[in-house]
Amino acid sequence: MNLEERLIQTKKASLSLQNLKEETRQQALAALATQLLAQTPRIIAENKKDLALAQEQQLSPSLIDRLTLTEKSLQAMAQAIGEISAFPQVVNVIEIESTRSDGLVIQKERIPIGVIAMIFESRPNVVIDCAALAIKSGNAMVLKGGKEAQFSNRVLYEVVQAAAQGFYAPEAISLIETREEVDVLLTMNRWIDLVVPRGGEKLIRHVKAKATMPVVAHDQGLCHMYLHHDALEAIKLVVNAKVQRPGVCNALETLLVHEDYPLDAFEALVSELLRLKVEIYACPRVLKIFPQLKVADEASWSTEWLDLKLNLKIVKDQFEAIAHIQRFGSHHTEAVISQTPAVIEVFKSQIDASCIVINASTRFNDGGQLQLGAELGISTSKLHAYGPMGAREMTTTRFIVKGSGHIRG
User: Fold this and answer.
1) Which of 57, 77, 183, 404 sits at 20 to 30 Å (Cα–Cα) from 47?
2) What's the pTM?
3) 375 lies in a domain?
4) 262 & 150 share domain
């Protein structure tokens, strides 16, 4: 069976997901969580094959971190499935209803998008997250993961297929495994309604250039944090944003500090980052205080490090910080740390990002943390979603018009 034939099957099978009763969706999600936990030893064994190959190929520590599955992470995935199941119904719901003076009833119904293709790199958990969101939202899914996670993706897909039995057509969620099939898939706009690329800049550019269907991109996370001179708890916030998991898209990449921020606090912050092995690329004003740091240049400000590396710049005020973010930001996550409402308001009003974080770590721009259960990705595209895409963001609406012999005059 060639790719187009499989996609036709997926399109047909999408109706079996779209038409499920909400109670059946919950049962299917419970079966998925049960299968996931029951297959934990097998999943970890397959994941170790990917990790061994990653070590042989000397892949980066951040990529290996994203690739790794553990008993704890699988339990967290099962918990997320439960959270998704417990959310209010998102499809086949009448959201708005009105009746015209002539008795014609107009309704707006929320429905699935249809078939969504998800192309992702190095994160095998995406297979389960997407399956759970597909069941909740009534969408069929075509999944294409990276070769670095081939064993993990395959075993997780088998878990999804086993859990589907008796609830919906298993073909509603399909997996493709070869790079050659991606370019073919991107021409299949008759069978695929939306494609979501989630990975590096090269992947995003390729999909945007080749896709014949709409694209919602999970683009790079060049995340900034601005410390105003009255910022509190800066060390805790910066360390969490940069160090906790440096290889993820909501990790901090550039820190902007007001010139009147207390010098002793600034020195303590930089010293703590250096103690934690963060490699700092600094502007000339910072280098006067810490001459041992590396020199930041245009390339530094434009780089999503995904590593224990950080850009650091002293700015005159919030307006210079905003101008820097407007130039180099990627519309992902931008944070302001200040006790001054006017500073926060001007930051919010002049920064365009999928998530504005106030006096907290950038690490909260995540589907699970924002109470979506899981995410398809973090959209930086705006149309039709902006920020983490949960089940509701995987839907659209249509009109239902009810008459009793009405004709238009």
Assistant:
1) 183
2) 0.90
3) no
4) no
